Amino acid sequence: MSEPRITRLTTFAEFDACVDLQQQIWQYSAGELLPRRVFFLADKLGGHVLGAWNGDRLVAFNLGLPAQRGGVGYIHSQMLAVAPEFRNGGLGRRLKLAQRELALEQGIVLIEWTYDPLEIKNSFFNLQRLGAVSRRYQPNFYGASSSPLQGGLPTDRLYAEWWIGSDRVASRLEGAPAQDPITARVSVPSDIYNWKAARDPRAAAAQGSVREQLQQHFAAGLAALGYTREADGSGSFLLGPLPPGEPVGTTQETS
């Protein structure tokens, strides 16, 4: 299988392909599905719509919306979708790096997005591979979700802050080992996916425990600076103070 090519998406047909892929992956109800118009406006208003093609088939996309907070512009990376058969091959990382390059060309230094703290692979990718940091936790961010992937749980989300021009991010992208002082860990059990799929009460209990611990650490001034995956399939957030000289930005919630 050849490596998919990445391009900017600009046409209605391309945006329709994004909507179709979104629905295939998350199986949203009509009320939750991002329509073609959102992709169109993101492209027209300074955001990013990037796609990956295998021949003439769209197999992944990354949607970034223009945003501002406190008078400072940034990109809110709303959705990264990769078809199942193209996962775990580095395509998501290539899309994020392409997004970073576009943002730097625009003079933007921050890309943010939200992610489910119970998703072990995604947390590892965001914090350990990309060098993002998290220090804000929003319970039930989107309200009730129709996606079966959510397992009926509240849509709790962490904010990822990706300071794309920082030495920290450049070092992580080069694969350098992390040097962060870690003072706390918060673990996610490996069985969380099975529990969610079965609507097992242990999934809600695990979510509640992770929520409480992370909120306590964030309130104490710590940030999630890294992530580790254990041999048994579980994962752990690695928390500590932001190192001196790191961008601190603002912790005000987005609207």
Structure commentary:
It is a single chain. The protein is an alpha+beta fold and 255 residues long. It has a domain of 174 residues: Gcn5-related N-acetyltransferase (GNAT) (Aminopeptidase), CATH 3.40.630.30. Helices cover 32% and strands 27% of the residues. The protein has seven helices and ten strands. The chain is globular, with a radius of gyration of 18 Å. The N and C termini lie far apart (42 Å).
| Radius of gyration, in angstroms, nearest whole number | 18 Å
Tally of DSSP β-strands: 10
In which order are the strands of the major sheet placed? 1-2-3-4-5-7-6
What is the average of the pLDDT values? 92
End-to-end gap: 42 Å
Q: What is the helix fraction of residues, given as a range? A: 25-40%
CATH superfamily of the domain at 5-178: Gcn5-related N-acetyltransferase (GNAT)
Secondary-structure element series: EHHEEEHEHEEHEHHEE
Strand content: 25-35%
Specify the number of helices. 7
Going by CATH, the architecture of the domain at 5-178 would be 3-Layer(aba) Sandwich
Question: Regarding quaternary structure, how should these chains be classified?
Answer: single chain
In the predicted model, the low-confidence regions spanning at least 5 consecutive residues are 250-255
Under CATH, the topology of the domain at 5-178 is which? Aminopeptidase
Describe the global form. globular
Features:
7-stranded mixed β-sheet; alpha+beta; single chain; 3-stranded antiparallel β-sheet; 7 helices; 32% helix; Aminopeptidase; 255 residues; globular
